[in-house]
Amino acid sequence: MDSKVFQKQHQQQALCRVTSLEEKDLDPWTAWAYRPRTLSLLLLGACLLVWASGALQPDALSSLDRATNVTRGIWAMIAVFLGYCLLQAPPTILIRPHPAIWRLVHGISVVYLVFLTFLLFQTCDDSRQFMKYLHPDLGIGLPERSYGSDCRLYTPENPNNRFKNFYDTVMDEFVIAHVLGWWGKAIMIRNHSLLWVLSIGFEIMEVTFKHMLPNFSECWWDSIILDIVICNWIGIWAGMKTVNYFDGKTYVWVGLSRQPDLFHKVKRSLGQFTPATWDKDEWNPLSGPLRFVQVLVLVVIILTVELDAFFLKFCLWIPPSNPLNKYRLFIWWLIANPAIREYNSYLQDRKRTKKLGAFCWLSLANCIVEVLICVKFGKGLYPERMPHWIVCFWSCFGSATVIFLAIWWLRQYIRRNQSLNNNKKIN
């Protein structure tokens, strides 16, 4: 009996190895990149540690001060952890350009979560001063720019530029970020309706919190025309064009060694940075009250992550032009790609017992800790109270949503019972 069980397990493991995508598509020219080299890289990493730490020559680094040693030690600690994730982190559903890249992104996500947790246990002033270790220009209080102080398009009193307000708004660094951001969101979400809900939803968030952040105070033409109609529309349109392009492709991959000439070899090499397959996400928020709530949770999390960018830079004194803002957005974009794929797979799975994917779990954890930092450090920074009409609006909206979901669920429950009763009568 034991031998039969062992033989069956051995056959299943062999089948998994044969049918895995990485092994099935191996090409003789690139097979070396998919072979495990954990011991070789471990020895290489140990040699790098010996060289960087001065383990064999401790006197060579004796001239460095304590702060420098601590900084180098922290960066080395992060590098060791990322090296481990590069080799041993759990796989994800994305495999291009190489599964190791997404294992590295998994490690970066964990490092970011640990960093946020560290900031959460500091005071607001200590956190602001700590940011100097990440960028020397930080740690200094900065005034927030308001876009709604003067909403005139034409300013005749300014002889140098009579359309200065419009020019300053159009040339702001957030304009390009809007277009690129919505292009990236469209590639990840792949649903027109959901994208427009997010687009309009964020403008509502700006109106909701503009009493807290002057940066959210915008003119009507900036919010409606420049943001929604122009920037967001261009980003969504370009993103959905990209989605339709990949959705319409035929995915038959031929190895590099089988390409006929140099042009096709280069084309195949560049194709490695495109998806191996393309899944058409089906969100279907109107298929039932449960699915509606699940999609609504995704919308709330995405809007919260976007709001965190503004509240974090306000609390930690990070100017919009600082590269740390771009680094955070890039990290979130890397994390969100597999996270949204995992969440959609989680919704499509019909099993009773399901497990949330690693990237999806990390995204939720990072979002929660970012919110906690904004709440803790924001105490005393927002003297103005939320306007009464905004409180009434969200109270009515929340109540209407709950009533709508209750009626929807009740109607489905009645229809289900009627269907069961009719089946019993027929039988």
Please explain how this structure is put together.
Helices cover 66% and strands 0% of the residues. Helix 8 runs parallel beside helix 10. It is an all-alpha fold.
Features:
427 residues, mainly alpha, 15 helices, 66% helix, globular
Order of helices and strands: HHHHHHHHHHHHHHH
Strand content: under 5%
Using only CA atoms, what is the Rg?
Answer: 27 Å
* Helix residue percentage: 55-70%
Extended strand count: 0
Gross geometry: globular
| Assembly context of the chains | single chain
Distance between the termini: 45 Å
The number of helical segments is 15
Summarize the main sheet.
none
Low-confidence stretches: 1-8, 10-24
Brief account:
The chain is mainly α and 427 residues long. Helix content is 66%, strand content 0%. α4 packs across α5, α5 (99-120) packs across α13 and α9 packs antiparallel against α10 (220-247).
Strand-helix topology:
Blueprint: H1 2-19, H2 21-24, H3 38-53, H4 66-88, H5 99-120, H6 124-130, H7 164-170, H8 173-189, H9 192-209, H10 220-247, H11 262-271, H12 289-315, H13 323-348, H14 358-377, H15 388-426
